[in-house]
């Protein structure tokens, strides 16, 4: 991994996860700076990771090789417009904000600044995230590699050919952890209804989710084939799977993820028009 000077704008949950992952991977703490208006956030990050923090953005930004915009989408216009005077050296800017288009960022930050849009997800907090990245034409191959390495510190990285795919990633994996939490809730509840105690049902459900994901990741066949292999004719699994299919579970997921995609596109319009 390169040791580019990283400046995070915003020191909240996502920035903390990324910094935690980078430090764990051996990234030098003296190459990481966080800017957050709340001095307390800075103190917490300094104590946890030994990095440097500032309450003002532009002094740090002028010395950055890579700037990571990790503020809420609602404040992005103000933050990005304020940063513009500090970007004459054209550092790479990576935005992890949902719904803020590259064109909007370009207009706020100034022309010629290379921009990468990234959609991570919350399991980045436990270094098991999934990120989709889209690079604008001004991003060079070295910067692309650097951005990929930064996000790979907290999980997997998928490069996207079209910016519209960022909204698809938002709908699938950005919002996706909540879909799995719902499945976990529902399975745990079903176990309790059968008469298991809540803690036993919770532990069995969670370990089953983890085990199934690990098996699917390690396997050279797809999830559908794995499912067929564990579904014996006339057995218990077949009964449950048929019930889920009769109740159109795949169609429900298709509709839910399409609805999330529509909302991501709507939000992009609301935030950048
Ligand atoms: N969390 C997720 O699952 C997730 C997933 C994908 C993408 N994202 C994106 O990641 C971004 C950050 O999300 P988050 O969950 O980390 O939010 P967060 O915890 O609220 O962090 C944002 C931080 O930015 C700070 N901030 C506000 N105004 C600032 C300014 N002018 N200059 C510098 N820092 C400023 C906030 O300080 P105050 O608290 O004092 O306002 C806060 O510490 C969002 O755009 C979100 O869309 C998040």
Write down the CATH topology of the largest domain: Rossmann fold
Number of strands: 8
Rounded mean pLDDT is 95
- Tell the overall outline: elongated
Poorly predicted regions are none
Fourth-level CATH superfamily of the largest domain: NAD(P)-binding Rossmann-like Domain
The biggest beta sheet, please?
8 strands, mixed
List key phrases describing it.
elongated, 8-stranded mixed β-sheet, 2 domains, binds NADP nicotinamide-adenine-dinucleotide phosphate, alpha/beta, ProC C-terminal domain-like fold, 12 helices, Rossmann fold, 273 residues, 56% helix, single chain
Write structural notes for this entry.
With 273 residues, this protein is an alpha/beta fold. The chain folds into two domains: 6-166, Rossmann fold, CATH 3.40.50.720; 176-266, ProC C-terminal domain-like (ProC C-terminal domain-like fold, Orthogonal Bundle), CATH 1.10.3730.10. The chain is 56% helix and 13% strand. The chain has twelve helices and eight strands. It has an eight-stranded mixed beta sheet with strand order 3-2-1-4-5-6-7-8, with helices on both faces. It is elongated and about 70 Å long. The chain starts with 5 loop residues before the first strand and ends with a helix. The mean pLDDT is 95. Bound molecules: NADP nicotinamide-adenine-dinucleotide phosphate (NAP). NADP nicotinamide-adenine-dinucleotide phosphate (NAP) is lined by residues 9-15, 35-38, 41, 57, 70-73, 75, 79, 96-98, 119-122, 174.
